[in-house]
Amino acid sequence: MSSLGTFTIRPLDPLKDAELLHRWVTHPKAAFWMMQDARLQDVEREYMRIAAHEHHHAYLGLHDGEPAFLMEKYDPRYVELVGLYEQEPGDVGMHFLVAPTDRPVHGFTRAVITAVMTELFADPATRRVVVEPDVGNKAVHALNEAVGFVPAREIDKPEKRALLSFCTREQFEAARGVSA
Q1: Rounded to the nearest 10 degrees, what angle do helices 169-176 and 108-121 cross at?
Q2: For 71, which of 15, 32, 83, 118 is 20 to 30 Å away at the CA?
Q3: Which range, 17-31, 101-115, 149-163, has the best average confidence (pLDDT)?
């Protein structure tokens, strides 16, 4: 529960949620999601692929019961970052996308990333969250730093130049003002 309401996360249903996701990922504000020209079938196919993957999972985030964000969790030993950095036990990769809105709420995106990080660290096996946003995505870099991420270095991925960043459980708790 945050001052902005209740955030919950449920597994994504690739077919049932595809139309909603299609609107989100093709919206101009989702340019860094790299699906601007995707058709509905492309979105269904991509999330069916993720649903079938042993090391990549997608979730729909709800705000007061209404769909509000997308969260992906992955094992960087097998997905996204294979061979691009030295993985440590307990590393978990993450992507998130806040639904576009005509009525932005101050602090909402930070509340979403906080809910995402809380969900990831709810698993005691998670020791560190790893992200690799586009180097040009300054807004997400600021959000990441606000919840405890520390940039490590830029890396080249097939689809982008990315800023590899890490956040330990302790860094996240310190950023939230939670004492260990």
Answers
A1: 140
A2: 83
A3: 149-163
Distances (CA, A) of 48 to 19, 41, 55, 94: 13, 10, 13, 18
CA distance 88 to 63: 32
d(CA 21, CA 41): 11
Taking the CA atoms of the chain, what radius of gyration do you get in angstroms?
16
DSSP assignment, residue 136? Answer: T
The answer to pTM > 0.85 is yes
Distance CA 92, CA 75 (A): 5
Find the mean pLDDT for residues 119-133. 96
Residue 55 near residue 76 (C-beta atoms within 8 A): no
Integer Cα distance of 179 and 75 in angstroms: 28
Instruction: Return d(Cα 109, Cα 116) in angstroms, integer.
Output: 10
Helices (H), 59-128: 108-121
